[in-house]
Amino acid sequence: MSDYRTRGIEAAVVQDLARKMVFIGGPRQAGKTSMAKHLCVAAHGSTEGRYLTWDTAVHREAILRERFPVDSGMLVLDEVHKYTRWRQVVKGLFDTRGPGLRILVTGSARLDYYRRGGDSLQGRYHFYRLLPFSLAELGGESHQVLTDLLAYGPFPEPFLSGSERQARRWSSEYRTRVIRDDLRDLEQVADVALVEHLVLRLPDLVGSPLSVNALREDLQVSHHTVSRWLSILERLYVIFRIAPFGAPRIRAVKKEAKHYHMDWTLVQDTGARFENLVAFHLLKWCCFQQDTEGRDVELRYFRDIDKREVDFVLTERGTPLHLIECKLASRDLSPSLRYLHERFPKAQAAQVSLESSPDVLTKEGIRMCPAEKLLAQFV
Predict the structure, then answer these.
(1) Tell me, what's the pLDDT at 1?
(2) Buried b (16+ CB within 10 A) or exposed e, 87-100
(3) In what helix (H) or strand (E) does residue 287 lie, and over which residues does it extend?
(4) Which residues of the chain have pLDDT under 50?
(5) Do residues 106 and 78 touch, judged by C-beta distance below 8 A?
(6) Residue of 267, 264, 246 whose CA lies nearest to 256
(7) What domain range is 49 assigned to?
(8) Which pLDDT does position 256 carry in this prediction?
(9) DSSP state letter for 179
(10) pTM for this one?
(11) Are both 321 and 173 inside the same structural domain?
């Protein structure tokens, strides 16, 4: 708890707990338990009797016997979705005690799965995704923090270790736990080893449109099987995919998505890893806007039949809000970014670089700046 870093969704979670239950999902080890305990301590001075996890025998017995705090305040139920009757338990608690008892339910990808299994909780909770650390959560416009994020990844344990060796070990162990534990628990997959091989193959393909056919040939399985495995990896927060942004007047491609990793330390190429880092920050911003404001925002990319490409397009209801291009060094303005901005002049446009550089506005109205200057604006 001494190393705790404030998370971007905290204020919204506290506000929503006054009216409804709050469910928090997201990748394993993204900091959900630490945040929940932090909120407990802030509200009650300790977690005693206020934090119950299904993974601890004493706490599990309390949940089974429904021994919950008798007074008002916060109650955290961690990994409770592993209990088959968890919906009935939290529904009963909320219906009889809420909103006096502020109920926070946390869990990994499994919570995402299991909450969709029925509608008995409909209207009783708000759902948030807690993704790993962003630059804004770690110190804002700091080039050193950006460099550390690139090296160690965004997950709290490897990032706070400050060691590339520890980050590599953590990454390998994390991948094994997700594939061998979560995948087997949640999905019927006949050949887990082939899925693991897919996970090892994907980092080399970051930043380019992902060809399912090429993967199918590589793995010697069907197109349907590869597509299904990619969807599973998305649901487990191993990867995320972004679709192309298409509009008739720009002759955009409309098929293959690009993919990125939550743990970008798997990506060896520096340019692709940097692009992955930027993609993560924009995705996290989209999740925040969707979960807290209900906005219809999406992260996409642009590529047309003339092979002009812009790395990222943030849209709201299909209209571009922000156009973003990534460069390791930002000396010359991307012709593709200029082209797309000319067609959508109301959208903000920026070319960000990993290398420290001046923060300037071009005559076309396009911002050229170090990545940390722009990404610090995204929660």
Answers:
(1) 45
(2) bebbbebbeebbee
(3) helix 270-293
(4) 1
(5) yes
(6) 246
(7) 10-129
(8) 85
(9) I
(10) 0.94
(11) yes
Look-up of token digits 């799965």: 113
Q: How far apart are CA 322 and CA 278, in angstroms?
A: 13
Do 141 and 92 share a domain, yes or no?
no
Residues 251, 258: Cα–Cα separation, whole Å: 18
Cβ–Cβ < 8 Å for 343, 360: no
Take residue 119 and report the two structure tokens written for it: 């509608």
Verify that 160 and 109 share a domain, yes or no.
Answer: no
d(CA 61, CA 56): 9
Look at strands 319-327 and 309-316 and give their pairing. Answer: antiparallel
Q: Where are the beta strands (DSSP E) in 162-250?
A: 239-242
Residue 2 lies in a domain: no
Q: In this structure, are residues 141 and 287 in contact, taking their beta carbons and an 8 Å threshold?
A: no
Q: Cβ(362)–Cβ(334) under 8 Å? A: no
Give residue 252's pLDDT.
Answer: 58
Measure the CA–CA gap between 228 and 187, rounded to whole angstroms: 10
The domain boundary residue, chosen from 86, 107, 129: 129
With vertex at residue 233, the alpha carbon angle to CA 227 and CA 237, rounded to the nearest 5 degrees, is 145
Encoding tokens for residue 182?
A: 């979560």
Phi/psi at 111 (nearest 5 deg)? -60, -40
User: Which of these, 141, 131, 124, lies nearest to 288 by C-alpha position?
Assistant: 131
**Measuring CA to CA, how many Å separate 90 from each of 20, 42, 53, 78, 258?**
11, 23, 14, 12, 38
Same domain as 119, residue 144? no
| CA 309/CA 180 separation, integer angstroms | 37
Residue 271 has phi, psi (to 5 degrees) of -65, -45
Q: Which two tokens stand for residue 255?
A: 């098929």
Q: DSSP code of 19? A: T
CATH number at residue 44: 3.40.50.300
Residue that is last in its domain, among 93, 108, 129:
129
